[in-house]
Design a protein that fits this description.
The chain is α/β, with parallel strands linked by helices and about 325 residues long. It has two domains: about 1-200, DHBP synthase (Alpha-Beta Complex), CATH 3.90.870; about 225-315, Rossmann fold (3-Layer(aba) Sandwich), CATH 3.40.50. Helices cover about 30% and strands about 15% of the residues. The chain contains nine helices and 14 strands. The strands form three sheets. Strands 2-3-7-4-6-5-9-10 form an eight-stranded mixed beta sheet, with helices on both faces. The chain has a four-stranded parallel beta sheet with strand order 11-14-12-13. β9 and β10 form a beta hairpin. The two termini are about 30 Å apart. The structure holds threonylcarbamoyladenylate and magnesium ion.
Length: about 325
């Protein structure tokens, strides 16, 4: 197990190595975005397909100069939500120093300024944009603790441990590369809040393959099968050999072999923060044969929670 200090993490990133670090959403697997060899190490460590682009993280809006072409919509959203769980996909600026592999060859670049104090400190020390996808093997559940990172990427991965991630869901990704602002991925900031700042509804991608390649992949999959909208144990229950664990939202129905409370008081932000930890816990609970999930309301952060759960349910 390789726990690194913040100064070691910064030195490693500057030297072209990969380091996992905490953000307020999930742990990221970082590398210097301007170094093609370093970026290649991210794709290799994750087993990530090379057509799925990465987010570049910055600590200071001054770094945007020469990276991307900002417009009024982008400036409004950045002012309202940065630092925070929002990623903006913008046209790459002419002469953009970020390695083309970070954009997976697309003419756009995804940018985020995270709020986590350790992430901000680290990014400030590195002084260059840091490419960072979630720090898990491609297709697995995203990590919200340093232990999750090691469970997924192995004990040799260098991790800056900042404790559990407070938001717990990946950033909301907004496409601003064309005339219509589009919701490319629901996430830690509710779409309604973004629409309120834009003063216009968000569109959905017309061509997901071109606009949001990552969303086509199988994703967020635990080992166990996931059953959605569960209000009672399965018919037959343990007699049929099935021992389901329950992710509970509000008071849990009786009869499940294990219960992990996403939020006892039905709070969506609390449920979002606990979702991946709950999937990890039940997935590693000995003797369970499946994970059932109670219904989650489809508003606010519930949209992002339901998006990840739907992928977990179909993703094996
Ligand atoms: O909260 C987060 O966003 C975390 C933390 C570490 O910042 N990162 C994260 O990265 O979730 P990743 O690689 O797991 O997801 C990035 C998403 C993918 O769906 C990818 O397809 C999309 O952003 N994306 C990145 N660059 C893009 C681009 N140029 N055009 C369209 N989508 C892009
Ligand atoms: Mg990911």
């Amino acid at each position: 197990m390789v726990d690194v200090t913040i100064s070691e993490a910064a030195e490693r990133l500057k030297a072209g190595a990969v380091v996992a670090f905490p953000t307020e959403t999930v742990y990221g697997l970082g590398a210097d975005a301007t170094d093609p060899a370093a970026v290649a190490k991210i794709y290799a460590a994750k087993g990530r397909p090379d057509f799925n682009p990465l987010i570049s993280h910055i600590s200071d809006p001054a770094q945007l100069d020469g990276l991307v072409v900002m417009d009024d919509r982008a400036r409004k959203l950045a002012a309202a939500f940065w630092p925070g769980a929002l990623t903006l996909v913008l046209p790459r600026a002419p002469g953009c120093p970020v390695a083309p592999a970070v954009s997976a060859g697309l003419p756009s670049l995804a940018i985020r300024m995270p709020a986590h104090p350790l992430a901000r400190d680290l990014l400030g020390r590195v002084g260059r944009p840091v490419a960072a996808p979630s720090a898990n093997r491609s297709g697995q559940v995203s990590p919200t603790t340093a232990q999750h990172v090691r469970d997924s990427l192995g004990p040799d991965i260098a991790v800056l441990d900042g404790g559990p991630c407070p938001v717990g869901l990946e950033s909301t990704v907004i496409g601003l590369a064309g005339p219509q602002a589009t919701l490319l991925r629901p996430g830690g900031i509710a779409a309604e809040e973004i629409e309120a700042v834009l003063g216009a509804p968000l569109g959905l991608p017309q061509d997901a393959k071109l606009e949001s390649p990552g969303m086509l992949l199988k994703h967020y999959a635990p080992r166990l099968p996931v059953r959605l909208n569960a209000t009672a144990p399965q018919q037959g229950g343990s007699q049929q050999g099935g021992r389901e664990g329950l992710l509970a939202f509000g008071p849990p129905p009786a009869g499940f072999a294990a219960v992990y409370a996403l939020s006892a008081g039905s709070d969506l932000a609390e449920a979002a923060a606990r979702l991946y930890a709950g999937l990890h816990v039940l997935d590693h609970e000995p003797g369970l044969t499946g994970i059932a999930v109670m219904p989650i309301p489809a508003r606010g952060l519930g949209l992002a929670i339901n998006d990840r759960l739907a992928r977990a349910a179909r993703g094996r």
